[in-house]
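Catalogue entry: protein

Sequence with per-residue tokens
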Amino acid sequence: MSRETLQGTVFALLVAATMAAFVITQRLKSAPPPIERVYYPAWISPNGDGLKDVVTLRFRLPKPGEATVQVVDAGEVPVRTLARDAPLTAGRQAYPWDGRTDGGAIAPEGVYRLRVDLSSEGRTLTALNGLTLDVTPPRPEIVAVTPRTLFPGGPPRRTRARIRFRGPSDPAPRFDVYRMDRGRRPVAAGSFIGRRFREIALWDGRLRGRPARSGTYAFRLTVRDRAGNPGSVFAPRELVTVSAGRRQARPRGG
């Protein structure tokens, strides 16, 4: 075989391989996706408090087939196998995950994704949406409480305590009010809910719907982060004194 003939044969083989790859690519583009409607929450916190301890990974199969369903980490290394070579029917699929590895331990904090390997079709799909595992509680801080003395029925600026804090506020924060009698332990007196998305809360000096008795009060703040982890702080130095006694009557004019 001459050199020119050999070069022509190689060129023809390259063209044929390129055309075959192009046809296969176009078929893959036009083929329906192996799974559809992938959905699961964005956060999981397997800390045992009953909130976001378990998430459900959902997707839809256009047609039946055998599949291996796994949770993989950011490096696409499997951490939990939810199903292996399982025969699945067409339609909706749902797999709960408790945030644990195949060995039973809680998976490290990080971002995870759903991966479905359809052995019957020879195709694998890793979901784009991530699932963040977070078990670290937030650390809120009460910055200031003003004014330090409330006078129910007095001037408007003295009838409500303004509590400024740092920390998450979605969902809305919770404030527990404690009576601080001298020489005794703090006594729980009531609670109220702050406003969502705001790091400022107002206490109107009322407990369980009634005006608070005269005394000194402190606050415990409890917040939750996006993963549902609770975090609390008690601020016994940021006190409010409620003066619920009668105000002196104003003297009558001449």
Summary: The chain has two domains: 32-133, 141-242. DSSP finds one helix and 19 strands in the chain.
